Amino acid sequence: MCIYKKKVYNRVLIKLSGESLQNEKKTGINQFFLYRIAKDIKEIVQLGIQVSIVIGGGNLFRGSSLTNIGVNHIVADHIGMLATIINGLAIRDILFQKKVQSYLMSSFSIKGMCSSFNLDKARKLLSSNIVIIFGGGTGNPCFTTDSAACLRAIETKSEIVLKGTNVNGVYSADPKKKLNAIMYHKLSYKEVLDKELKIMDLSAFILARDYKIPICVFNINTPGLLYKIVTGVQEGTFIGY
Ligand SMILES: Nc1ncnc2c1ncn2[C@@H]1O[C@H](COP(=O)(O)OP(=O)(O)OP(=O)(O)O)[C@@H](O)[C@H]1O
Ligand SMILES: O=c1ccn([C@@H]2O[C@H](COP(=O)(O)O)[C@@H](O)[C@H]2O)c(=O)[nH]1
């Protein structure tokens, strides 16, 4: 790793897709991914970047898959939000093992396991270079953790949302469905909306646009990519004005 490189951001929010955490059985949590992502996060914290993380739950439960088996949609979303806390607990523990100071906050009360969301405290901890993991999404059903990521980025005054996902960036169509889809390197908010590129749910995306939070969509499975992005290397797809 090139330690002479300079950071281009002071405070970032990383959205970690739950799916990226899944193991080879397509469920649960992948041990190797956890350790690797903790290493990647440590590298950027050591650059002096203030980091918060919004963690998804798709490796464990998504509301939509539970409604498909007959669970009421509000209850299904509650289960999905709880799944994000499970992932958050795992990430907090691995960061601790890697000697990265971190703090897990849940959007709803889970006494005994982690603290509840407190914006003042989150800002103070971030200023002291402590990584904040935001679990529990927005705390409300009918949303996703993409909305939580944009919301927390606005609240914590983060300069960018780094959306780590399992594709290389934003494509002209879902690359998992259309193999000849082309990847964009740079897009405006308007282009994403006009072209109906479904990389994030609409409510999340509108928040980012209205509060002028740029988004970088990148492949979370590529080791070291986070470091490249925060030191100014163009990777994935950058969305802004
Ligand atoms: N235009 C597009 N460009 C890139 N990916 C797209 C596009 N449209 C749909 N996708 C799909 O979006 C997915 C990204 O999902 P994402 O990482 O946000 O998961 P998530 O559902 O938010 O998180 P979780 O796994 O926690 O539920 C990719 O796997 C890709 O198949
Ligand atoms: O604010 C929120 C965030 C999430 N949910 C539910 O949790 C699951 C998992 O989140 P992902 O963003 O898919 O990783 C999601 O499918 C919702 O069911 C929520 O209700 N509110």
UniProtKB/TrEMBL annotation:
Its EC number is 2.7.4.22. Pathway: Pyrimidine metabolism; CTP biosynthesis via de novo pathway; UDP from UMP (UMPK route): step 1/1. One of its GO terms (molecular function) is ATP binding. Keywords: ATP-binding, Cytoplasm, Kinase, Nucleotide-binding, Pyrimidine biosynthesis, Transferase. It comes from the Bacteria. UMP binds at G57, D77, T138, G139, N140, P141, C142, F143, T144, T145. It is an enzyme of class 2 (transferase). InterPro entries: AceGlu_kinase-like_sf, Asp/Glu/Uridylate_kinase, Uridylate_kinase, Uridylate_kinase_bac. Residues 10-219 form the Aspartate/glutamate/uridylate kinase domain. Coiled coil: none annotated. GO terms for cellular component: cytosol. SUPFAM superfamilies: Carbamate kinase-like (SSF53633). It catalyses: UMP + ATP = UDP + ADP. ATP binds at K15, L16, S17, G18, G58, R62, T165, N166, Y171, D174. Signal peptide: none annotated. Inhibited by UTP. It is found in: Cytoplasm. The keyword ATP-binding applies. One of its GO terms (biological process) is 'de novo' CTP biosynthetic process. Catalyzes the reversible phosphorylation of UMP to UDP. Homohexamer. Belongs to the UMP kinase family. HAMAP family: PyrH_B. This is Uridylate kinase. It comes from Buchnera aphidicola. The lineage of its organism: Bacteria, Pseudomonadati, Pseudomonadota, Gammaproteobacteria, Enterobacterales.
